[in-house]
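Hi C.,

You asked whether I'd gotten around to modeling the 192-residue construct. I have! Everything is below, sequence then structure, no commentary in between.
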Amino acid sequence: MTREKKSAERLIKKYPNRRLYDTQTSSYITLTDVKQLVLDNEIFTVIDAKSDEDLTRSILLQIILEEESNGSPMFSSAALSQIIRYYGHAMQGMMGSYLEKNIQAFIDIQNKLTENSKGMYEGKPFSPEMWAQFMNVQGPMMQGMMSNYIEQSKSLFIQMQEQMQNQTKTIFGTTFPFVPVVPVVSPDKTGK
């Protein structure tokens, strides 16, 4: 990160007493205030006041945990279990990238819908209530679009996996077959 970008970022310090201090406003803030910074698209970094360790991801995960615990959660238990299973897996990096790109695609679709609907509501952006109303009317069509997108995405992922397997076979061929070696114990070596 460049120095110019670093200096433009809002700096929040987390103290040992677990309080968050916003250096821009010179005041203590809450996790709710940090959530509002995210909603306002503010760029910020949270650091440990003593060690200067970057705690931004940890704070963002705390916000997600609070949101998932209150109200209506975004992730089902099955989805969370699937995500957890990818930690330590060879495909962990790819899964993170895949999720990030799909979230960005979803945001792009939402922005396009908002842009196309500006004239419908006197140039005002969609409020959460308007989105709910829109989804009630357009829900089945949107579900169909999303299902189609997910199927295409799944198909692309399977094709990519097949290409990787074929490349692996080409590189290693028969000189390095992926056959597990199972030790064979002969009866006379068991001591019986």
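If it helps when you're writing up: The CA atoms of residues 115 and 125 lie 8 Å apart.

Thanks,
B.
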